[in-house]
């Protein structure tokens, strides 16, 4: 795993905390500002060490796989301008990935591998993040495939309806051009 990939995996917990606080509670009560709902995507802003960070999240419109129980499933795009980080694409699978197995992300005719750790998946570098965000802006659906630690294959289908509007909202709120 590259140092970039290791840093991203370490940051997963930092992102997960505000995301899960928004579930079932008022976003503002937890210091998270909901910027709005845009089609299948919701946009948020929160403070991290006194500096703004923004993310957008969506749940699958359809999930397939032979599983009996699965946790929360999300696709996310995050900006952390104070750290000069933007367009970070990640996924929460709702299960522990099989060790060493990639997640594959397909938008249109483009399929890319994301590295996995625990229940998360990330692009291996910033260039792929940027490329995937542009594909999401142009696309209509996104498929994310993964393998659980028990060997279960899953396919999650995300609608990209509202992606561009949510992306504009987080970019404006965090001052990212």
Strand fraction band?
A: 35-45%
Determine the structural class based on helices, strands and strand pairing: alpha+beta
Second CATH tier, the architecture: Sandwich
Average pLDDT, all residues = 87
CATH fold topology: Immunoglobulin-like
- In whole angstroms, the N-to-C terminal distance is 30 Å
Oligomer: single chain
| The CATH homology group name | Invasion associated locus B (IalB) protein
Beta strands, count: 11
Number of helices: 3
Major sheet: size, sense and barrel closure? Answer: 11 strands, antiparallel
Estimate the global geometry from the Cα principal axes. globular
What proportion of the residues is helical, as a percent range? 10-25%
Look at the structure and give the CATH class. Mainly Beta
Compute the number of structural domains.
Answer: 1
Q: Secondary-structure element sequence?
A: HEEEEEEEEEHEEH
What is the radius of gyration computed over CA atoms, rounded to a whole number of angstroms? 15 Å
Keywords: Signal
InterPro entries: IalB_sf (IPR038696), Invasion_prot_B (IPR010642)
Signal peptide: 1-29
Protein name: Invasion associated locus B family protein
What this model shows, in words?
The chain has 177 residues and is α+β, with helices and mostly antiparallel strands. The chain has one domain (34-64, 71-174): Invasion associated locus B (IalB) protein (Immunoglobulin-like, Sandwich). The protein is built from three helices and eleven strands; from the N terminus they run H-E-E-E-E-E-E-E-E-E-H-E-E-H. An eleven-stranded antiparallel beta sheet has the order 1-2-3-5-6-9-8-7-10-11-4, with helices on both faces. The longest helix is centred in the first third of the chain and has 19 residues, at 3-21. The model is unreliable at 1-30 (pLDDT under 50). Pfam families: IalB.
């Amino acid at each position: 795993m590259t140092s970039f990939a290791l840093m991203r995996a370490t940051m997963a917990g930092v992102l997960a905390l505000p995301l899960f606080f928004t579930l079932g509670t008022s976003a503002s009560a937890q210091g998270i500002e909901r910027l709005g709902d845009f089609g299948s995507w919701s946009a948020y802003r929160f403070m991290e060490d006194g500096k703004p960070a923004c993310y957008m999240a969506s749940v699958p419109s359809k999930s397939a796989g032979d599983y009996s129980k699965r946790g929360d499933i999300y696709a996310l795009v995050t900006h952390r301008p104070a750290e000069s980080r933007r367009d970070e694409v990640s996924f929460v699978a709702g299960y522990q990935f099989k060790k060493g197995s990639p997640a594959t992300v397909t938008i249109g005719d483009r399929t890319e591998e994301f590295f996995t750790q625990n229940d998360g998946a990330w692009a291996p570098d910033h260039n792929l993040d940027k490329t995937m965000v542009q594909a999401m802006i142009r696309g209509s659906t996104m498929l994310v495939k993964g393998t659980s630690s028990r060997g279960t294959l899953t396919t999650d289908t995300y609608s990209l309806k509202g992606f561009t509007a949510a992306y504009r909202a987080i970019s404006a709120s965090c001052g990212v051009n």
